[in-house]
Amino acid sequence: MARARRQRGARRRPVRPGRACTRDRRLAAVRARGRRDRVCAARPGLRGARRRPRGRLAGVGERRVLIGTPVLELETPVLVVDLDALEHNIGVIARHYCGESGEAEKAIRLRPHGKNHKAPEILAMQVAAGGTVGGVCAAKVSEAEVFVEAGAGNVLIANQVVDPAKIRRLVALAGRVETTVAVDSDVQVALLARGAASSGAALGVVIEVDTMM
Questions:
Q1: Facing residues of 110 across strands?
Q2: Count of domains in the chain?
Q3: Cross-strand partners of 207
Q4: Is residue 9 part of a domain?
Protein backbone atom coordinates (compact mmCIF):
# COMPACT_ATOMS: atom_id res chain seq x y z
CA MET A 1 0.00 0.00 0.00
CA ALA A 2 1.44 3.30 -1.00
CA ARG A 3 1.96 5.80 1.75
CA ALA A 4 -0.22 8.84 1.71
CA ARG A 5 1.68 11.83 0.50
CA ARG A 6 1.57 15.10 2.34
CA GLN A 7 -0.67 17.46 0.53
CA ARG A 8 1.05 20.25 -1.25
CA GLY A 9 0.94 23.38 0.78
CA ALA A 10 0.21 21.59 4.09
CA ARG A 11 1.77 23.30 7.07
CA ARG A 12 4.57 21.54 8.95
CA ARG A 13 4.72 21.65 12.73
CA PRO A 14 7.44 24.10 13.65
CA VAL A 15 10.43 22.76 15.58
CA ARG A 16 11.71 24.92 18.38
CA PRO A 17 15.29 26.08 17.98
CA GLY A 18 17.76 23.82 19.81
CA ARG A 19 15.17 21.07 20.36
CA ALA A 20 15.09 17.83 18.40
CA CYS A 21 11.91 16.32 17.10
CA THR A 22 9.97 13.81 19.20
CA ARG A 23 11.37 10.77 17.38
CA ASP A 24 14.95 11.95 17.75
CA ARG A 25 14.44 12.72 21.42
CA ARG A 26 13.04 9.24 22.03
CA LEU A 27 15.99 7.62 20.29
CA ALA A 28 18.41 9.73 22.30
CA ALA A 29 16.64 8.73 25.53
CA VAL A 30 16.84 5.02 24.63
CA ARG A 31 20.54 5.29 23.87
CA ALA A 32 21.21 7.16 27.11
CA ARG A 33 19.22 4.62 29.11
CA GLY A 34 21.20 1.80 27.51
CA ARG A 35 24.46 3.45 28.52
CA ARG A 36 23.24 3.87 32.09
CA ASP A 37 22.15 0.22 32.21
CA ARG A 38 25.57 -0.93 31.05
CA VAL A 39 27.30 1.21 33.66
CA CYS A 40 25.04 -0.04 36.45
CA ALA A 41 25.49 -3.64 35.33
CA ALA A 42 29.24 -3.25 35.65
CA ARG A 43 28.88 -1.51 38.99
CA PRO A 44 25.80 -3.07 40.64
CA GLY A 45 24.02 -1.22 43.38
CA LEU A 46 25.12 2.26 42.33
CA ARG A 47 21.96 3.41 40.57
CA GLY A 48 20.30 6.09 42.61
CA ALA A 49 22.61 5.51 45.57
CA ARG A 50 24.64 8.25 47.14
CA ARG A 51 28.32 7.73 47.50
CA ARG A 52 29.70 7.72 51.00
CA PRO A 53 31.90 10.76 51.54
CA ARG A 54 35.57 9.99 51.63
CA GLY A 55 37.44 10.17 54.88
CA ARG A 56 38.29 8.06 57.89
CA LEU A 57 35.47 6.40 59.72
CA ALA A 58 35.06 7.21 63.37
CA GLY A 59 37.07 4.84 65.52
CA VAL A 60 39.20 3.41 62.70
CA GLY A 61 42.79 3.11 63.83
CA GLU A 62 41.93 3.53 67.49
CA ARG A 63 43.06 0.68 69.71
CA ARG A 64 40.86 0.02 72.69
CA VAL A 65 41.59 -2.44 75.47
CA LEU A 66 38.43 -4.46 76.10
CA ILE A 67 39.81 -7.19 78.36
CA GLY A 68 37.65 -7.37 81.47
CA THR A 69 34.66 -5.62 79.90
CA PRO A 70 31.35 -7.33 80.80
CA VAL A 71 29.91 -9.19 77.82
CA LEU A 72 26.65 -7.24 77.93
CA GLU A 73 28.57 -3.97 77.56
CA LEU A 74 30.44 -4.97 74.38
CA GLU A 75 29.52 -3.23 71.15
CA THR A 76 28.83 -5.77 68.44
CA PRO A 77 30.19 -7.02 66.14
CA VAL A 78 33.26 -7.89 68.20
CA LEU A 79 35.63 -10.85 68.29
CA VAL A 80 35.90 -12.40 71.74
CA VAL A 81 37.98 -15.26 73.14
CA ASP A 82 37.00 -17.46 76.05
CA LEU A 83 40.28 -17.50 78.01
CA ASP A 84 39.26 -20.51 80.10
CA ALA A 85 38.55 -22.58 76.98
CA LEU A 86 41.70 -21.31 75.27
CA GLU A 87 43.96 -22.19 78.21
CA HIS A 88 42.29 -25.60 78.52
CA ASN A 89 42.85 -26.43 74.84
CA ILE A 90 46.47 -25.28 74.93
CA GLY A 91 47.03 -27.40 78.03
CA VAL A 92 45.57 -30.51 76.39
CA ILE A 93 47.94 -30.19 73.43
CA ALA A 94 50.93 -29.49 75.67
CA ARG A 95 50.25 -32.57 77.81
CA HIS A 96 49.88 -34.68 74.66
CA TYR A 97 53.37 -33.74 73.46
CA CYS A 98 55.11 -33.39 76.83
CA GLY A 99 53.27 -35.87 79.03
CA GLU A 100 51.68 -35.21 82.39
CA SER A 101 55.05 -34.42 83.97
CA GLY A 102 55.61 -31.52 81.60
CA GLU A 103 58.97 -32.90 80.50
CA ALA A 104 59.94 -33.78 76.97
CA GLU A 105 59.00 -37.45 76.56
CA LYS A 106 58.36 -37.67 72.84
CA ALA A 107 60.51 -36.98 69.82
CA ILE A 108 57.60 -35.31 68.01
CA ARG A 109 57.03 -31.63 68.66
CA LEU A 110 54.21 -29.35 67.63
CA ARG A 111 54.77 -26.38 65.33
CA PRO A 112 51.67 -24.19 65.73
CA HIS A 113 50.35 -22.68 62.52
CA GLY A 114 49.94 -18.94 62.85
CA LYS A 115 46.95 -18.79 60.52
CA ASN A 116 44.87 -20.63 63.14
CA HIS A 117 44.73 -17.54 65.32
CA LYS A 118 46.99 -14.86 63.74
CA ALA A 119 47.83 -13.67 67.24
CA PRO A 120 51.41 -13.53 68.56
CA GLU A 121 50.02 -13.46 72.11
CA ILE A 122 48.37 -16.86 71.65
CA LEU A 123 51.55 -18.25 70.09
CA ALA A 124 53.47 -17.13 73.18
CA MET A 125 50.97 -19.03 75.35
CA GLN A 126 51.43 -22.17 73.23
CA VAL A 127 55.23 -22.00 73.44
CA ALA A 128 55.18 -21.35 77.18
CA ALA A 129 52.93 -24.38 77.76
CA GLY A 130 55.53 -26.69 76.20
CA GLY A 131 55.48 -29.41 73.59
CA THR A 132 56.32 -27.11 70.67
CA VAL A 133 59.43 -26.42 68.63
CA GLY A 134 59.51 -22.93 70.08
CA GLY A 135 58.52 -21.38 66.78
CA VAL A 136 55.68 -20.99 64.33
CA CYS A 137 54.48 -22.08 60.90
CA ALA A 138 53.41 -19.22 58.64
CA ALA A 139 51.60 -19.19 55.31
CA LYS A 140 53.57 -16.29 53.83
CA VAL A 141 56.51 -14.00 54.46
CA SER A 142 54.48 -11.12 55.89
CA GLU A 143 52.93 -13.40 58.55
CA ALA A 144 56.37 -14.74 59.46
CA GLU A 145 57.69 -11.20 59.88
CA VAL A 146 54.95 -10.37 62.38
CA PHE A 147 55.62 -13.44 64.52
CA VAL A 148 59.40 -13.00 64.43
CA GLU A 149 59.02 -9.37 65.44
CA ALA A 150 56.91 -10.57 68.39
CA GLY A 151 59.63 -12.99 69.52
CA ALA A 152 59.15 -16.29 67.67
CA GLY A 153 62.35 -18.32 67.94
CA ASN A 154 62.13 -19.97 64.52
CA VAL A 155 59.77 -19.99 61.57
CA LEU A 156 58.66 -22.30 58.78
CA ILE A 157 56.96 -20.80 55.72
CA ALA A 158 54.77 -23.54 54.32
CA ASN A 159 54.29 -22.05 50.84
CA GLN A 160 56.76 -21.48 48.02
CA VAL A 161 58.51 -18.12 47.76
CA VAL A 162 59.80 -17.12 44.30
CA ASP A 163 59.28 -13.35 44.08
CA PRO A 164 62.68 -11.57 44.26
CA ALA A 165 61.45 -8.93 46.72
CA LYS A 166 59.96 -11.57 49.02
CA ILE A 167 63.12 -13.66 48.79
CA ARG A 168 65.10 -10.66 50.06
CA ARG A 169 62.68 -10.31 52.98
CA LEU A 170 62.93 -14.05 53.62
CA VAL A 171 66.73 -13.88 53.71
CA ALA A 172 66.50 -10.94 56.10
CA LEU A 173 64.42 -13.11 58.44
CA ALA A 174 67.03 -15.87 58.17
CA GLY A 175 69.59 -13.39 59.45
CA ARG A 176 67.55 -12.96 62.64
CA VAL A 177 66.11 -16.40 63.47
CA GLU A 178 66.23 -19.94 62.12
CA THR A 179 64.12 -19.80 58.95
CA THR A 180 62.88 -22.66 56.78
CA VAL A 181 60.80 -22.52 53.61
CA ALA A 182 59.01 -25.17 51.55
CA VAL A 183 60.28 -25.88 48.02
CA ASP A 184 58.84 -27.92 45.17
CA SER A 185 61.22 -27.30 42.25
CA ASP A 186 64.92 -26.98 41.50
CA VAL A 187 64.26 -23.56 39.97
CA GLN A 188 62.99 -22.27 43.30
CA VAL A 189 65.98 -23.80 45.11
CA ALA A 190 68.34 -21.95 42.76
CA LEU A 191 66.56 -18.64 43.40
CA LEU A 192 66.70 -19.12 47.17
CA ALA A 193 70.36 -20.19 47.06
CA ARG A 194 71.28 -17.10 45.05
CA GLY A 195 69.46 -14.82 47.47
CA ALA A 196 70.94 -16.45 50.58
CA ALA A 197 74.48 -16.43 49.17
CA SER A 198 74.31 -12.70 48.46
CA SER A 199 73.75 -11.95 52.15
CA GLY A 200 75.61 -14.84 53.75
CA ALA A 201 72.48 -16.10 55.55
CA ALA A 202 71.68 -19.78 56.08
CA LEU A 203 68.22 -20.68 54.79
CA GLY A 204 66.67 -24.07 55.51
CA VAL A 205 64.35 -25.88 53.12
CA VAL A 206 61.84 -28.70 53.32
CA ILE A 207 60.78 -30.54 50.17
CA GLU A 208 57.07 -30.51 49.47
CA VAL A 209 55.90 -33.84 48.03
CA ASP A 210 52.64 -34.10 46.09
CA THR A 211 50.93 -37.21 47.49
CA MET A 212 47.84 -36.66 45.29
CA MET A 213 45.65 -36.31 48.37
A1: 132
A2: 1
A3: 183
A4: no
110/102 Cα distance (integer angstroms): 14
Q: Which burial class, exposed, middle or buried, applies to 51 when counting CB atoms under 10 A from its CB (0-12, 13-18, 19+)?
A: exposed
Whole-angstrom distance, CA of residue 184 vs CA of residue 211? 12
Which pLDDT score is estimated for 175? 93
Per-residue model confidence as pLDDT tens digits over 98-138: 866 555 556 688 999 999 999 999 999 999 999 999 999 99
Q: Is 129 domain-assigned?
A: yes
Rg (CA), the chain: 33
Spatial distance between the Cα atoms of 8 and 14, rounded to a whole number of angstroms: 17
Q: Is the pLDDT of residue 46 over 70?
A: no
Domain assignment present for residue 138? The answer is yes
The CATH number for 100's domain is 3.20.20.10
Q: Which domain holds residue 109?
A: 81-207
pLDDT level of residue 25 (50, 70, 90 thresholds): low
